[in-house]
Design a protein that fits this description.
single chain, about 325 residues, alpha/beta, TIM Barrel, eight-stranded mixed beta sheet
Length: about 325
């Protein structure tokens, strides 16, 4: 795989600083039951990295000692971590909102047949990846049969009340472009998703988030192989909008890897660009308990143009 970090070090991206921390995003491991071409985590069935119980306990200790009210669990397929349900249950006891970045097909895997019921019982917000509403496009990007399995998963969630009137059972979908282009307008694409999924499959959801693909890891390596890396970077930089800087996710979100190390965002985690805290080269979540991040500088490189290009992109979709 081609390394992308050396190509992102021109430091043209403006300096930015943190605001008050609102969301702790925890990557509990890189193992996944899928292998997607756009995956910035390089996740897949052969990855073995997984968060141990002691780090999960540190996450909970941090939540107890802070006013952070959102725990965003990601992976890989986060549900494959053996401590996933423990983290969810204990965080919910603390009154913390829990988000599960779910690939949908995991809901149908052997041993996870009751996963949808567990998520509903703990009122977990599901953020489900579905990069298109057309079967051929999804299977091309994620593997044969993924779309049909995703529809089965969505129907399971709908049957439990997700994506419908109950405000405590939120189901949001995530769209990624298939190639080196920016996402289309989020509102219009959400309408297209809703109309097609409702008419063809009887599926309902709350919101659609459109995310740009960042030129790192598996997607960045593919761009290099196809000779498209430089042109994609040119597109991202040419589409930069200064007003998006105010709302980029790294201002209020902190990323934690499976070992407990800290990063300003999940993309920096994959590039091994650790957060700069107290002059340390690498800091763990345990070092942060009782401390305030507001005003601290955020580590940036040119991949950050992906979050500020066009309508902007974050874990919560378009910025404007």
């Amino acid at each position: 795989m081609h390394a992308t970090l050396p190509l992102l070090r021109s430091r043209d991206f403006p300096a930015i600083a943190r605001k008050r921390l609102e969301t702790l995003q925890v990557n509990v491991g890189y193992k996944c039951n899928q292998t997607c071409v756009h995956c910035h985590v390089n996740a897949g069935p052969t990855r073995s990295e997984t968060m141990p119980r002691e780090v999960a306990d540190t996450v909970l200790a941090f939540l107890r000692g802070s006013d952070v009210r959102t725990l965003d669990l990601t992976g890989g397929a986060p549900e494959l971590n053996p401590h996933f349900r423990y983290l969810v249950a204990e965080a919910r006891k603390l009154g913390v909102k829990v988000m599960d970045r779910c690939n949908l097909t995991i809901l149908n895997e052997p041993g996870h047949e009751d996963l949808a019921d567990f998520l509903a019982a703990h009122r977990v917000e599901v953020v489900a990846s579905l990069p298109c509403y057309l079967e051929d496009n999804v299977d091309r990007q994620r593997g044969r049969g993924v779309f049909s399995s995703s529809i089965v998963g969505l129907r399971k969630l709908n049957a439990l009340g997700y994506g419908k009137a109950d405000p405590g059972l939120v189901l949001n979908l995530v769209y990624n472009p298939q190639g080196p282009s920016l996402p289309p307008a989020q509102v219009a694409l959400e309408d297209a998703y809703r109309g097609h999924l409702r008419a063809e499959y009887g599926v309902e959801f709350n919101r659609l988030f459109t995310l740009a693909n960042l030129p790192i890891a598996r997607f960045g390596s593919m761009l290099i192989s196809k000779g498209q890396f430089n042109s994609y970077m040119t597109l991202l930089q040419a589409s930069y909008r200064e007003e998006n800087l105010e709302h980029v996710m790294c201002r209020t979100l902190l990323s934690v890897d499976w070992q407990g190390y800290l990063y300003d965002c999940d993309f920096n985690q994959m590039l091994e660009l650790p957060a700069r805290l107290d002059g340390k080269r690498r800091s763990r979540l345990a070092d942060l308990i009782g401390k305030d991040l507001a005003g601290r500088p955020i580590v940036v490189a040119d991949h950050c143009f992906g979050c500020t290009a066009g309508q902007g992109s974050s874990c919560g979709g378009a910025l404007g």
